[in-house]
Amino acid sequence: MKLTESKAEMRGKILSVSGDDHFMNRITSIGITEGTAFQTVRNDRRMPLLIYLRETLISLNRADAERIEVEAV
Amino acid sequence: MSTAIALLGQPNSGKSTIYNNLTGARQHVGNWAGKTVEKNEGSYTYGGKKFSVTDLPGSYGLSGNSDEEVITTDYIKSGKSELTVVLVDASQLERSMFMLAEFARLDKPAMLVLNMIDVAKGLGKEIDTEALEKKLGIPVLPFNATDTKDYDRLKKLIAEELKAPHKLKVPAPETKSDVKADSKAKFEWVRNIIEGVTKTKDTVYKMSKFDRLMTRPILGKVICIGVVLLAFLVAMIIMIPFMNIGKMIPGALHDPVDKLLTGWNVHPWIVSVFSTMLPNVLFFVISMASFVFGVNVVFGFLEETGFLARAAYQFDGLLSKLGLQGKAICPMLMGFGCTIGGACGTRVMDNWSQRMLAMSIVWAIPCASIWSIIPVVSGMFFSWWQTMLVCVGILLYVVITMIVVSKIFSKKLAPKETRSGMIMELPPYHKAHWKHIFKEAFFKAWDIFKRALGTVTLVSVIFYVLSFSSDGDVSHSLLYRVGTFIEPVTKFFGMGWQTFMAFFSGAFAKEAVLGTLNAVFMNGNSLMEATFYAKTAATDTALLGGAMTAAISPAEALAFMFATTFNIPCLMALSTTYKESHSLKWTVRVAVFYFCNAMVLSCIVYHIAELFM
Hints:
The complex is a heterodimer of chains A (73) and B (613).
Chain A: E1 11-17, H1 21-29, E2 37-42, E3 49-53, E4 56-60, H2 62-65, E5 68-72
Antiparallel strand pairs in A: 1-2, 1-5, 2-3, 3-4
Chain B: E1 2-9, H1 15-23, E2 27-31, E3 38-46, E4 49-55, H2 67-78, E5 83-89, H3 93-96, H4 98-104, E6 110-115, H5 117-122, H6 129-136, E7 140-142, H7 148-163, H8 179-194, H9 209-214, H10 219-263, H11 268-305, H12 307-320, H13 329-335, H14 339-345, H15 352-362, H16 368-381, H17 384-413, E8 423-425, H18 434-467, H19 478-485, H20 487-492, H21 497-506, H22 512-522, H23 527-531, H24 541-551, H25 554-566, H26 571-581, H27 584-612
Parallel strand pairs in B: 1-4, 1-5, 5-6, 6-7
Antiparallel strand pairs in B: 2-3, 3-4
Helix pairs in contact in B: 4-8, 10-11, 11-14, 11-18, 13-14, 14-15, 14-26, 15-17, 16-17, 16-24, 16-25, 17-25, 18-26, 19-21, 21-22, 21-25, 22-24, 25-27, 26-27
C-alpha cells in the first residue's frame, strides 16, 4: 500500500520509494530508504504525514508520501 | 594569521548553537561568492592563537544539487579549512551519521562531535566513544552544546588536532550512480560503523500529550496562532524598556544641541540636522535594534524548544500555495504587530530565497501602526459600518497582494521545479537555554544597530532635504514644490498633493502619517517635524477631520487609505529587509513593487469610488 493509506499507529517497512533524483536525494538523506522499519504516527486528511523512523519523528507532505510504498509488519 | 576550521552538520544538529557559542560577537555575515546563500564566518582565540570558523550551509546531505550542498562540498574540497568539525545528533545517531558518510568521500581531515549526548543518555542510549574513535580513526567528542565546560574541551581538541590532523581511516561508502543505491550504500556504511558501538532499542513511538494536541489539524493551528501572538506580546514587553530609552533621545538632545550650536552661530538649517534629525535617526535605529532583540529572543525560544517545527507542520499546506515553507507562518503573524519584527523573524527560514520571499510577503501585512491610522482617517469621512467595510476591504486586499507578490517574486525565488514539499524532522521538545538565547539575540541586535545606522542616516538626510522649509511653512519645502508640480499625475492616481505627501511620508514612518496630514491640511506643524514625528502629539483629529473633509473628497480619502496601507511599510522595515537579505537589488525590487502596487491600487479605488460617491 501507499504510505498515505497507512493508519496511525501502524508499524511497517518501506518497500519502495520512487521519484526523480532531486526528490530521491532529499527523501533518502533524511533516512527514508527501502527496507527501513517505520511507524505511522499521524495520518490526518489534508495534513502532512507524521512517521517515526530511525529514531526520528519525520513530517512529510502528502504528495511525496504518495510515492512511497510500504507494507505492514 | 588564523587557522581555518569549518562546521558541518544536518539541520537540528545544534550547529548554529555551537557556532554562536564558539565565536560570540566576532561574527561576519556575508554571501557566498555569486550565490544567494548566507555565509557565516566568525573567529575565536584559544591559547593565544586565532581560529576562524566557517558555518557551512546545511542540508541533510551533500549529494543533492542545491546551492547549499554544492557550496559546502566545494568548500571542503578546496581545503581552505584545515579541519572540518562534523556534528551529529547522538540521540539520533544512525540517521544523523549520514552526513559523516557523505563527508567520508571528500577525504579531508575531520573530527566528530556527538552533540546532545545528554539527550541520548536520557533516552537510555549508550555510545562507546572510544570504540567509535578506533573504528573511524578520527577523534570523537561527546558534547552537550549548552554546557559551557564542553566548549573548552572542544577548543582544546581542535587546537591539538590542528597540529596533526586525522582523516577517516575507514574507506568511504562506495559510489553508485543510482541515487537509491547510493544512499543505501551510505546507510550501510553508517550501520557498519555504529554496530557494536551503540545499541538501538526497537521502540514503539509514543507521542507526548502536548504533541498530540499540537498536531491536531484545527486545534493545533489555533494553538500555533495563539502562541505566536503571545510571543509577539512578549517580544514587545522585552523591547519596551529599550524603546523608551530610545524615545527619550530626541527630546533630551533637542534643546541642548540646539542651544549649543545656535550659540556657536551655526546656520539654523544645520542646527536642525543635529538637533532634530540625527537624534531621531538614533531613536529609529534603537527601536529597530530592540525589535530585532525582542523578536530574536522569542523566536530563539520557539525554535530551540521545537515549537517552530510544529508550526511548520501545521501551516505547510496553506503556505506552500504561496511558495513558502510552513515556518513562514511565524514571521507573517509577527507582521501584524510590526513589519520590522516580521522581517527579522524570517531568520527561521531555511535558505535565502525563502527568507527573501517571506519578507516580501510580510510587507503586505498591515502593521499595528496602520490599524491606528485607518480607523481615524476613515472615521472622518465615513460612518462606523463603512469604516468596518474599509477594514474588511483592506484585509481582502492583503490576501490579493500576497498572491500577486508570490506570483511575481516566486518565479525567481521559489521556481516551481525547485519547490519541494516539506520533508523535515520534528525534533523532540527541548528545554530552552535562556542565557544562550539572550546572548545570541543581543549579538544580532547589536549587529543590526551598527549596520543600519548608516542606511537610516542616508535616507533620513534625503527626506530631510525634501521636507525642509526654513520657516516651517509647508509650501516652502521641496516636497511641496515637487508634490504640486506632479499633482496632475498623482491626481490621476487618486491623490492630490496633500494626500500624496502624507502617503509619501508613510513610506518613511507610518507614525508620521497623521502628523503630515496635520502639516499639509492645517499647516499645524512643519513637515519636517511631522516626518520625524517630533510633535505628533499636537494632532487634533477633530479639527484635522474638519479640514480634511472640507478639502478632499471621500473617494480621495479612500484611495489614500488603501495606498498608505499597501505602501512601503516604513524606512526601518526597508532597512531591516536590506540588512537581513544583504541584497540591495532585491530590496529595491520589492520596494518598487510595493510603491507601484499602492499607486495602482489607489488609482483603481479612486476611480471606482468616484462612480458611487
